[in-house]
Design a protein that fits this description.
177 residues; Immunoglobulin-like; five-stranded mixed β-sheet
Length: 177
């Protein structure tokens, strides 16, 4: 009868009809294939993590002329421009890198003297893949209502996908010339 020890009229499933040793061999091969696949995907994930390092951010300092608290750097957002305590005039670029949900970075610019919000918008980080850092940039024109010597706060954050709250906020204070 060969490797089959059954009559197909009563057992139509070929795997049931194999010898016990052949059936066990098939089960072991399926099990080993699943283990090898899991190890492969683990290694790919490990390599992705090694290729996308988390940037470090120096803590920002608040000028003594304001009463706002010191900003806590974020592990998911960095602001490279403007720099803390930089003097700006006319217009300047708000730029940096971000690893945020759906690559959407929220940006708010506030005049610390009048507490007026000068800009509330979003920008897109152009990350190559989900979970990786991507650059963002936005040009901001200082309104004429802001006087020379005023301090403006640039806040970059992401809206939480859970509840819309502001998370990973990075705050930079700059002086208007």
């Amino acid at each position: 009868m060969g490797i089959f020890n059954c009559d197909f009229r009563y057992r139509p499933c070929a795997l049931v009809c194999y010898d016990t040793s052949v059936r066990n061999l098939v089960i072991v091969m399926v099990f080993l294939t699943l283990i090898a696949g899991g190890m492969f995907f683990y290694q790919v994930q490990k390599e992705r993590e090694e290729l996308s390092p988390t940037p470090t951010v120096a803590p920002s300092r608040v000028p003594s002329s304001t009463t706002s608290p010191t900003a806590v750097p974020s592990k998911n957002i960095t602001v490279s421009s403007p720099m803390e305590n930089q003097t700006v005039s006319g217009s300047f670029t708000i730029s940096g890198t971000a690893r945020v949900f759906e690559n959407v970075v929220s940006i708010r610019v506030t005049d610390t003297t009048t507490k007026k919000v000068l800009l509330q918008t979003t920008a897109y980080a152009t990350a190559p893949d989900a979970g990786q850092f991507g650059p963002f940039a936005l040009r901001f024109d200082i309104p004429k209502t802001v006087k020379a010597g005023d301090i403006i706060r640039v806040e970059v954050y992401q809206a939480s996908p859970k509840d819309g709250s502001e998370v990973d906020t990075v705050s930079v204070l700059v002086r208007v010339r």
